[in-house]
Amino acid sequence: MQPVQILKKYFGYDSFREGQEVLIRGILAGKDVLGIMPTGAGKSVCYQIPALMLPGITIVISPLISLMKDQVRALNEAGVHAAYINSSLTESQISKALYNARCGQYKIIYVAPERLESSLFRDFAVHTDISMVTVDEAHCISQWGQDFRPSYLNILKLVRCLPRRPVISAFTATATEKVKEDIINVLGLVSPKVLVTGFDRKNLYFEVKESGKKDAELLNYLRRHAGESGIIYCATRKNVDAVFELLVKYGYSVAKYHAGMNNEERKKNQDDFIFDNRPLIVATNAFGMGIDKSNVRFVIHYNMPQSMENYYQEAGRAGRDGENADCILLYSPQDVVVNQFLIDSKEVRAEIDEREAYALRERDALKLRQMTDYCMSKDCLRGYILRYFGEEAKDGCGNCSNCLREFEEKDVTKECLHVINCIMETRQRFGINMIVGILRGEKNAKLLSYHFDRLDSYGKEKGANKDYLKQIIHQMIISNIACTTKDQYPILKLTGAAEDYIWGGEHLTMKVPKVSINIEQKPSKAGARVKSGSPGLFEKLRQLRLEIAREEHMPPYIVFSDKTLVDMCAKLPGTKEEMLAVIGVGEVKYLKYGERFLEVLQKERA
Ligand code: ADP
Ligand code: ZN
Question: Distance (Å, rounded) from C-alpha 417 to C-alpha 413?
Answer without folding.
Answer: 6
